[in-house]
Amino acid sequence: MKLLIDGRAVTAEGTPTLLEVARANGIFVPALCEHPALEPYAACRLCLVEVKGRKGFVPACSTRAEDGQEVMTATAEIQALRKGILELILAEHPHACLICAEKPSCDDLKSTIRKTGEVTGCVLCPANGRCELQRVVEAMGLGLVPFPSHRRPGEVRRDDPFIDRDNSLCILCGRCVRVCQEIRGASVLTFVSRGSETVIGTALDRRLLDSACQFCGACVDVCPTGSLMDRGGRYDRPAEAGTKAVCALCGQGCRLNAGIREGRIAGTSPDMDGPVNRGQACVKGRFLVGPALSHPRRLLKPLVRENGSLREAGWEEALDLAAKRLAAFAAGEVAVSASAQSSCEDLFVLQRFAAEVLRAPAVAGPWTGSAAAGLRDLGRTAGRALPLNFRMTDIDHARTIVVIGEDLPVTQPIVGLHVHRAASMGAEVIKVDAGKRALGLVSRLDRSKPAVILFGPSLVGGADGPARLAALEAAAAATGGRIIALDREANVRGGLAIAEAFPTLPASTGARALYLAGPHPKLKPGEAELVIVQGSYGDEISALADIVFPEATSFEAEGTFVNVEGRIQVSRPAVAPPGEARPGWRILQDLAGRLGAKGFGYGSEADVRAALAEAAPAFDAAALAASNEGPAFLAEGPAGAAAFAGRDAGRGRGRARVAAPLDPDDYKGLSLVLENKSLKLVRGRRCPRS
Predict the structure, then answer these.
(1) CATH of the domain at 411
(2) HSE of 641 in the Cβ direction (CA atoms, 13 Å)?
(3) Geometric angle at alpha carbon 575, from 572 and 578, rounded to 5°
(4) Percentage of the chain surpassing pLDDT 90?
(5) By CB atoms within 10 Å of each CB, which of 350, 463, 668, 684 scores lowest?
């Protein structure tokens, strides 16, 4: 369509609003209640424009563009009207700094005085420099507020985990209320009272903690002022730089914006352009990345056991000692475990190291007993294709959604948003436990209402797990539905696909040594002759190890991750590893070289990815993911037993075999719920462990 805005010819496609068209063409129209993720609201009225042929003024944020329209956005009458509206907004907001002629000097000279109980101006505000109200006032050139200043009632609320609330800074745009209702489906925040006493609050003025809040931080992210703030960064200086990273704290694969200050992650927020999360996150990705990376239990230097205790050592000494000790063991005598929170590069080199250097039985990992492995095995047994890949947007169009054994806000937070979206459009949502009750659903599925059945690893556990899964899949197929496997860790799909590229070696009579690069059942002193731990955090396992290698986390090294959809994403390092920690693949490469292995001379992560794609054709799209040219998914093979490496491919054997961790708040051996007081309060409502 073609239209005129302020006499300028512009074009648009689809059904955009006038505000969207104006902004796309660099035409400034102020708006404070509008947000691209939310439905038009037209509350602040700052975006009023004039459309030829219509009486009065219309809000640009909620008026659709039409072919042939003539729009005026900056006439004298409109500017005067906007100025009056903005003056009324500022009458109930601390505005001394906003209209002060000396504000530039304050910005230069008073950058360290934010720690105050009451915000009376911009230099005391935690949102100074990133406040949308500041930008609108500056753009409109407002220099005077002719009304007496009125402070909204209520003190700063600091009685909740993670989030502070200051109603004196609120402009009643309603963004927080709307995002909590429209997108998150929690409906925790609402408008309280009426008239000049209106504030944003909760039912019965309860804490967020007592109001079913998920502490996803979405309200903080859409707030245009400093009314809702991340307590952890409230008084910090702004970040010096920023970058993007894929979050590995669960299986969703959210892309985050990481603020960097003094070489550390100062805070994270969801990326609006993240292909999975689209500007949304969960409590862990939003608030806990920085604290996890700087946790005091981080392993910073290699450790070797001497005279019964661990001491720090250089890399050369630790690697030489590990190679010497490992060389003393025969094939099958070293058991290896891996983490599904490690990158595909780390997992691929670990699998090669185990198979070619140690000649160990299959590497044990959480993909053993995973939901994806259960669905894969069901397809092999039935001799037909059961796709594991899906897109979360597929859930939006389902008319019946069955959730089995999963607490979606905790284990699958972004999937949960799509379930809410489908429910808001009329879908029926059925939640059941993973036991025998799940089998009672067969009679409730209807071909006229296409069903999506979502299940996690708890469904496939136990002797009757495969039978339960088979019955549900058959019911879904008979009614034109779809069954979707949801695993909880960042790279279960990637680990499963990599494991299938390696043969399962005969099981040994018993492992004499352990190489632990992932979770392991509780280790007893003297259980193995040699224990080597490759990890990021010190724990009870590393305390019993003979050699400890400090490994970089996923936020500190480049790596590929495959989320629950089967989506391949390459994450770049946000910060450098602390101390002397190294990427896992580099540790293994250096160790393999000392053991005389050939073909481990990778020069970079890109070299490892190329070797991975050659060994495992499912990763053919990894290069596409690395180039960010478009969505990339694991390639799925044809149906039938001949298409697979064997039912036991990728299954660990012997003492290193583990099942999928039950705690969704573990990250590489660090229990976030036990180590973080605020998360412990949040999970305490539903997590017995806390």
Answers:
(1) 3.40.228.10
(2) 5
(3) 130
(4) 73
(5) 463
> Tokens 């063991």 — which residue?
329
DSSP string, 211-266: TT-----HHHHH-SSSSEEEGGGTTSPPPSEEEEEE--SSSS--EEEEEEETTEEE
Q: Name every residue whose Cβ is closer than 8 Å to that of residue 207 and which is 6 or more positions away in sequence.
A: 157, 159, 160
Q: Based on the domain organization, do 98 and 228 belong to the same domain?
A: no
47-58 pLDDT tens trace: 999 999 999 999
- Same-domain check for residues 348 and 377: no
pTM: 0.92
Task: Please report the beta strands in 612-669, taking only residues with DSSP state E, as ranges in sequence order.
Answer: 666-667
Paired strand residues for 265: 260
**Where among 242, 270, 293 does a domain terminate?**
293
Residues 65 and 8 in one domain: yes
- Which residues are CB-contacts of 229 (< 8 A; sequence separation ≥ 6)? 126, 127, 163, 164, 166, 220, 223
Contact in structure between 565 and 547 (CB atoms under 8 Å): no
Looking at the structure, do residues 410 and 471 belong to the same domain, yes or no? yes
pLDDT in tens, 534-567: 999 999 999 999 999 999 999 999 999 999 999 9
Which range of residues forms the domain containing residue 34?
A: 2-108
So what's the pLDDT on residue 436?
64
Asked if 183 and 231 count as a contact pair (C-beta separation under 8 A), the reply is no
Per the rule left: phi > 0, alpha: psi between -120 and 50, beta: everything else, 136 is alpha
Contacts of 524 (CB under 8 A, 6+ apart): none
Give the span between the Cα atoms of 188 and 207, in whole angstroms. Answer: 10
* pLDDT tens digits, 77-122: 999 999 999 999 999 999 888 888 877 777 666 655 555 667 888 8
In a domain, 428, yes or no: yes
147 and 62 in a common domain: no
Closest to 290 in 3D by CA, of 250, 232, 335: 232
Together in a domain, 360 and 387? no
